[in-house]
What does this fold into?
Amino acid sequence: MTDQLDALMAMKERLATVNRTIADATKNSGRNSGDVQLLAVSKTQTAKMVKQAFDLGQTAFGENYLQEAREKQDALSNLPIEWHFIGPIQSNKTREIAEHFDWIHSVDRLKIAQHLSNKRPEGKPPLNICLQVNVDNEAMKSGVLLHELPELIEQVAQLPSLKLRGLMAIPAPQTEYAKQLEAFHKLTEAAASYPQMDTLSMGMSSDIEAAIAAGSTIVRVGTGIFGKRNVK
Ligand SMILES: *Cc1c(COP(=O)(O)O)cnc(C)c1O
It folds into this structure.
């Protein structure tokens, strides 16, 4: 029991620290409080951990692996959690993803977007979509390249059961603030000509400040909230 209480107190502190970091960075960037949302990345964490974070006031959770996410969703179906899918998407999984998530951050090709739109159940609101962009042109990385982005935006914006909300990126890891900022600015600039999009999903535990300075509206934080990840 004491162990459980310790774990809960530790999570409470970590969550408060992350929320403080977000609030400070938002203020320091001259932005309005509430402009930046926290997405708690719960991959490899148990349903119980998600419940704990929920009880501490966190309502949006991001998952990378469909099967794992489905188990947690079933276990926590009584809670009004907003579920975000942030992992690679295989086309044979699009039906389940379209049924069980509110947001998808990792769409990077038209075919996947079409499947998600076709399979979004009638009666549910349009699925919120971010297009994942490979801002650093990395060879093995998921994401649409910047020069391919305008065409994909135009095509995805027309799909009836999707709502194109914005862009997402996971830049190559950089320790230097200026380099982090430079990568995030590429995403901000790419989004600038599309006022109908309101979301920039960028920034993780190690680069929250730069992401917020560059205009992030959703930061995705895992270890900063839950502590070290269980191996997957
Ligand atoms: C795991 C993951 C995160 C969170 O990473 P942390 O380093 O744990 O904060 C954010 N975004 C994506 C896409 C991830 O896969």
In short: The two ends are 27 Å apart (CA to CA).
